[in-house]
Design brief:
The complex is a heterodimer of chains A (165) and B (197).
Chain A lengths: L6 E8 L7 E3 L8 E8 L5 E7 L7 E8 L3 E9 L2 E6 L5 E7 L9 E10 L4 E10 L8 E5 L9 E7 L4
Antiparallel strand pairs in A: 1-12, 2-11, 3-8, 3-12, 4-7, 4-11, 5-6, 5-10, 8-9, 9-10
Chain B lengths: L1 E4 H4 L16 E8 L5 E7 L7 E8 L9 E8 L7 E8 L4 E9 L3 E7 L9 E8 L8 E10 L4 E10 L8 E9 L4 E7 L5
Parallel strand pairs in B: 1-3
Antiparallel strand pairs in B: 2-13, 3-12, 4-9, 4-13, 5-8, 5-12, 6-7, 6-11, 9-10, 10-11
Classes of the chains: A mainly beta (165), B mainly beta (197).
Chain lengths: 165, 197
């Protein structure tokens, strides 16, 4: 008997107009990991962020490796948003964000963001590991920008990945 | 050492009738969840040959309370402990980017970093690792990993790739862990189907 597939689309948002924030709420708790796939552009080059469960506390941090004209690494600590990369003025930017073990209530939440962007201002690639210092199960994800807005036709799809047990 | 035999751990389907619609391409095969007392490593054995690729998804932390820093996960296949593994890595430690590589190693192919047991409490490292074309007996086997950990002032982000210099089909995967695995660590194995399968 074939086994059930495990990468299940939960929700998709395709922007009809320029938008400053995108939220996925009431996320089912039935999966093991979440995968968020974003294909986007912004009205100007800008940094992209997420928040879990509307937490505005200084509970986010990251370590990243990046490549623009050269390679580098940096980190951010005790921030009020989770850094996930950058976007620029063409609809070729993308993020694949893995939020691992998101529904457990024992450990803090670690996520990976693999991000690429190429626009009128900048181009680059990131591999980011982020931490949300909370043991709460994740039930919402809010995406935001440091400035500007997402372009119309930017797409955001949330998937659930369920392990064998 | 946690040893998961997939003969007993595969998840059953839940279809309503034979010949139901294609269930999709990414299938959960087995899970190792570490209990109290921790463990040293994880082995997945009796891996079915019915997929095209495999994916491992790790959420792990070391178990030595007084140990800090980065620990390494490596993969060894089919109990091969010969010098048949290579790897290359691009990594960032939060202040500088670096790279390294290793050839002809018996240790296994490096797939990424995870935090030692004394790092930030309850902060686990994560890795997504793909093992491509794992049953093909005409090719060496390629692995690639993306992952790392962040401890709010410590951590690594890394991209890894490696080769097992064998054309044998993979039926066993040993995930080695420099600092073992503490409770609540988990490693999940998935199969990725080919078209028409």
């Amino acid at each position: 008997m074939p086994l059930p597939s495990t990468m299940t689309p939960i929700a998709t948002q395709i922007l009809a107009s320029a938008t400053a924030t995108v939220t996925f709420s009431s996320i089912p708790q039935d999966y093991t990991d979440l995968v968020l796939v974003i294909n986007s552009g912004t009205t100007a080059y800008t940094d992209n962020y997420l928040r879990f469960n509307s937490d505005t506390g200084s509970n986010y941090s990251y370590t990243r490796i990046y490549g623009t004209a050269s390679a580098g690494s940096d980190r951010g600590t005790s921030q009020t948003t989770g850094y996930i990369g950058s976007a620029d003025t063409t609809l070729v930017g993308n993020h694949i964000i893995n939020v691992m073990n998101y529904a457990n209530t024992t450990t803090n939440k670690t996520f990976l963001s693999r991000n690429n962007y190429n626009g009128s201002t900048a181009a680059g690639t990131h591999a980011i590991v982020g931490l949300w210092r909370s043991t709460s199960a994740i039930n919402s994800i809010t995406l935001s920008l440091s400035s500007s807005t997402w372009l119309a036709n930017s797409s955001f799809t949330l998937y659930g990945v369920k392990a064998a047990s | 050492m946690a040893s998961i035999s997939l003969k007993y751990k595969s998840k059953n389907g839940n279809l309503t009738a034979p010949g139901n619609a294609d269930p999709g391409a990414m299938i959960p095969i087995a899970t190792a969840i570490i209990g109290s007392g921790g463990d040293t490593s994880v082995t997945f054995s009796n891996i079915p040959a019915s997929y095209e690729h495999l994916q491992l998804r790790l959420s792990t932390k070391g178990r030595t309370a007084g140990l800090t820093g980065a620990c390494v996960h490596r993969l060894r296949f089919n109990d091969d402990s010969s010098t048949s593994y290579t790897y290359h890595q691009l990594r960032g430690n939060g202040s500088s980017a670096g790279a390294e590589g290793g050839t002809a190693s018996s240790n296994g192919s490096t797939i990424g970093y995870y935090p030692a047991g004394g790092e930030t409490a309850s902060a686990f490292g994560v890795i997504v690792c793909d093992i491509l074309d794992y049953t093909n007996t005409n090719k060496y086997k390629t692995v690639r990993g993306l992952g790392g950990w962040d401890g709010n002032g410590s951590g690594y982000s890394a991209l890894n790739s490696g080769v097992w210099l064998s054309t044998a089909a993979i039926n066993t995967i040993l995930v080695t862990c420099d600092d073992g695995l503490r409770q609540y660590s988990r490693i999940d194995l998935f199969g990725i189907k080919r078209a028409g399968a």
